[in-house]
Amino acid sequence: MKQALAVLLIFFSVQVIAQQELQLTLDDCLEKALSDNRQLELKGLEMEFQRQQIAGQKRFFVPEINAYARYYQYLDDRPVFIFPQNINPELSGPVQLGGAQNFYSGITLNQHLFNVRMLNGNKLSNYMDELAEKRQQMSEDEIRFEVIRTFYQIEMVGDGLSLLDFNRERLEKMERVTKTAVDNEAVLPITLEELALHKEELEISRQEIENRKRQLEDYMKFLCGIETETRISLVAGGTETEPALMDVNDSVSNNELELLQLQMRMNEEKILQETAGSYPSLDFFMAFEWLQQEGMGDLFSSGSTWFNQHMIGLQLSIPLLNPNNRKSKIQENRINQEMLSVQQDLLEEKIRMERAAARRDVQLSRERLDLSERRVDVYKRQFQQETIRYEQEFSTLKEALEAEDNLRTAQMEMSRRKMDYFLSILELYRTYGNLESFNKVK
């Protein structure tokens, strides 16, 4: 009965652990990172904030409704009074040219019919939409680059752990051979202690690599929006197939450059918009007013008379003096445009340099990887020879351990060179703005 309960407990424990562990392929990581990443969410909110600022330029098509109150006094020496009863007793509204003191209150509706800013506002809004889309692509490319790089690094670290396990097995085999081959009781303890030191060194290296792996996995969880407590396991296979080299071209274009060009076009529209403030504008208006005027009872008293009137018409506005100093803003935008133009030239040169450096790095990292593979092959044959000689007592333990150290160092170096080569190809895709197709052409 106790054995059955123990088996059930182990079974359920394994099931719980399996449920808590999340297995992810590279495509899974990319999908989660592009949908759940908090950095992308923040970028989206920032762009929405900027879009709302530009969206105000479209509101010229929306009518304005305002309530207002106005009190004024004429400066004429003898204000002219014209009241309805002086003209026609049947009239119900004031037609006065003005009393000495007047008080108005009412509601007015204004609708822009023509304003040059309306056209610029639409263009700015459209450019902002394009800008938001381009920045979204750039943000996604940044996340995509980090996810792919981290995925490869985790896989390479896993390969390093496998190499350490294999080296540990080799040392254990040498330990067994030593116990049977060394008959000298005085020499045997020292020899075994030397082997134990090598095994301890391997264990320390393993702990360092495992710590590095945990750090990379935590970073991957952060990128993918996965809770820190969740265990993840990456489905291997990404490093077994060499990424395909993309076809390169001499065209200087990527998302960063296109974003800068969009900003330049937006700045041109801002210059036109500020200039548009000096052009006349035509508005349609409607108003409903309540009026008190001097001569029809004391103002603001219970005995005063209120009149109401309705108005409809067109209003042509011609700017004469603008306190917003539009010339200064126009000059600022023009200077900014010149700065963006210089930045474009510098960015194009930077792109050319980065792409040339990336192509050279791919070539050099490939050569280093080939060299490290040949070195591993040589040290592997040397280690096999030294192992056989040691088993046959033709060489010392020191020589066998040196051969094992050389092979282990060469294998770890080859693993690093392989990662460098893969990441150099990834960097090449990044410089050409083609990261989206990286994991699709492997």
UniProtKB/TrEMBL annotation:
GO cellular component, one term: cell outer membrane
Gene Ontology terms, MF aspect: efflux transmembrane transporter activity; porin activity
Highest rank taxon of the organism: Bacteria
Keyword DNA repair: no
Transmembrane segments: none
UniProt keyword terms in alphabetical order: Cell outer membrane, Coiled coil, Membrane, Signal, Transmembrane, Transmembrane beta strand, Transport
Record InterPro entries: OMP_efflux, TolC-like
Endpoints of the signal sequence: 1-18
A Pfam family that the UniProt record links to this protein: OEP
Compartments where found: Cell outer membrane
Keyword Chloroplast among UniProt keywords: no
Coiled-coil features, chain-numbered ranges: 192-219
Family listed: Belongs to the outer membrane factor (OMF) (TC 1.B.17) family.
Protein's recorded name: TolC family protein
Organism, as annotated: Fulvivirga sedimenti
